[in-house]
Structures are given as structure tokens and as C-alpha cells.
Write the C-alpha cells for this entry.
Amino acid sequence: MKLALTTNGRLYQTPDGRYFTDVVYGYDFFRRYLNVFESIRLIAHVKAIPVEQAAGMLRVDGDGLDIYPVPFPHGKIDYLRKYLAIQRRLSSALIGCDACLLRVPDQLAFQVFPLAKKALLPIGLEITASAWDFFEKGAIKSPLRPALRILWDRQEKRACRQADATCYVTREALQQRYPPTRDHRHFTTNASSVDISEFHGSAREFGLRPLKSLRCLHVAGSLKGRAKGHHELIRALCLIQAAGVETHCKLIGGGALDPELQELVRTHHLDVEVLGKLPASEIFAAMQASDMLIFPSYREGLPRVVIEAMASGLVCVATDLPGIRELLPPEVLAPVRDAKRLSDIILRLCQNPSEMTRLSIQNIAAAQEFAPERIAERRNTFYRYLYQKASDRMP
């Protein structure tokens, strides 16, 4: 049984035929599908690079997985230029496949969806985020943002209504905006892609006296742009330090802070250390050396890093987004793009160390819902349903 699968992670091919990615979707990620399906055809944007550029990237290809490359666009406008070339390439992507699983929202997945419908393949969706939130004002810089927000939102809603099976990363938040069909034959569940097996910390004890110093952490795939709230994070640190609490902040993620933020760090004499991209074991070590995760993101489905931080025993302060509300209590959630409210929440916690201790204990307990065995059971049930739908079609 062969599964056609899309990924929003861009791939890079070296001259020796190996495939790599600079995001988290390496071969180990795709092995979960091989627990049920015999083989996978991974449909992805692929770009050729020299071997030396693959240093530090994750290997993607492996046993049971073959990669179907499509043209690699650079940005939204270039995607428009290459749209027809991508569509032509996709015309034969599903030949020999028995079922189709699409990770949405993603333009490549939206293009494959009608092809899978035409081929009468059983279609499963993994809904990882809200397209409406993804293109929120200020999240990306593109003249196409408003149009793409409406288009992707409609496509995500339509796909959820028409798919044979759906699996959401949230319990309720994404389901409210992108409900599955009410057809009794449809299967739906929820399962996060988080793996907390390397994140088992103990509760923090903050004593009784207000904190004069705070060790904080921020983790993102990239430090570029605004979508993860880096501007609000640095501005909040300035306000916290001005209020008399010394901050020591570590940033994990690729790239560098914007020059504007670097200037703020210098001007306000902030202790901010950029660690770059790190493997899970080193991220856990950084969490163990911290008191608090600050995560003022503009858009999220169910953020993996918040769950990892909870499992590690960190106090977490984040933005008030639907998926994050399923993880954290309202008293630690700030409005999106509100550095002042973010700093007020953190300062209040620093003045109430007993509350920080309570939140740390509460986070560890709540993170157990995401134990690998619990998630794997729900996820594999979803995959087996799709597998059975494909088997029922066979003569």
C-alpha cells in the first residue's frame, strides 16, 4: 500500500542524489506513516544544491520513501510564476499510489487535493494551522497577503468538508473554523506532531521572594521576520529591565535578529544570546537552564515548543491564540503584538514566585496528555482508517 504525502518543508538535493531539509521534517518524522503504510511517495518542492550547503541539514530520503520533486519557488510571487509548471509536474504525481494524505494549510497540498479527488483516492488531511491566521496582517510581507488569506482559508474549509478523514493538531480550536464533514462515514480525530520523549523536566521552585533576575528562553525555526513575535519579545525585555528585573534571554532559531532589534539590545544593554539552530537534546538543556519560555507568536496551530517547555517544567507566557488557549491558562496569555501587556504579565509573575511554582507544576501535569504513546495511538488509528478505505477500493 503506497501513500502519497505532501510536505510544506522545502527539500534540497545534492549531486549524489540525497535529499535534505533545513526544517524539522527529516526522515525520522516521516517514519510515523510507515508504521501503517508500506511505502510513501513524498511530494515536495526540491532545489539542487552543492554538497557543502547541506551541512547541518536533516536527511530526508530513506527506506520506504521515494521523493517526487516539483519546481521550487522563491516566495509567493515566484509561486505564481511557476504555478502552471508545478501543476504540469503534479499531473503524474499520484500514479501508483493507493491513498493520499495532505498536510494543510499549504499551497502544494491544495493543488494535489483535486487531483486526488479525480483519481478517486481516499484522502486524509492533517490540519496543522489556520490559513486565516497564517496570513494575518503583519505576519508576512507580501502584496499578495490579503488575497492569499481569503483563498487559502476557503481552500482549507473546502478540503476539510470533502476529505475522507481528518486529523487536527488541536482538540477544538481548528475544528471550529475548519469543521470536518458531517457524513457519518467520515473519520476525525486529533493528534499533535509533538514528541516530548526528550523533554522530561522537574517542577521549578521559585521560593517566596520576588524575582530580581529572570532567565528566559525563546525558540523558533527562524529569527527572521515578525511572525514569531521577536519584536514584541525584545521590547518587552526592555520594559521588564526598566522596571528593575534583570533579564537573561537565550534565543534559539536560525538566522539573526533584525538590525532594529539588535540596536534595541545594544541601547538597553540587554543580555540576549543567540544560540542558532539546535538539536532537541540541546534545546532541552537550554530549557533546563531557564525559568520561563516567552512565546509571543502571531499565528500558531498547536505550538510544539510550548508543549516541550511545559514538559520541561518551564513557566510559559505566550500570545492569546486559539490553539495556545488549549495549553495555557488565560492569565499568562497576552494579545498579539502587545509588548506592554506581555511585559506586564511577566512582571506580575516575577512579583509572585509562588504562582510561578504553581504554573510550573501545572504545566508538567498538562503536558502528559501529549505522551508519545497516547498521540501515536490516535494518529495510527487515523492512518489505519485511510489504509482500510484504500483496501476497500481494491478489486
Notes: The first helix runs from residue 27 to 30.
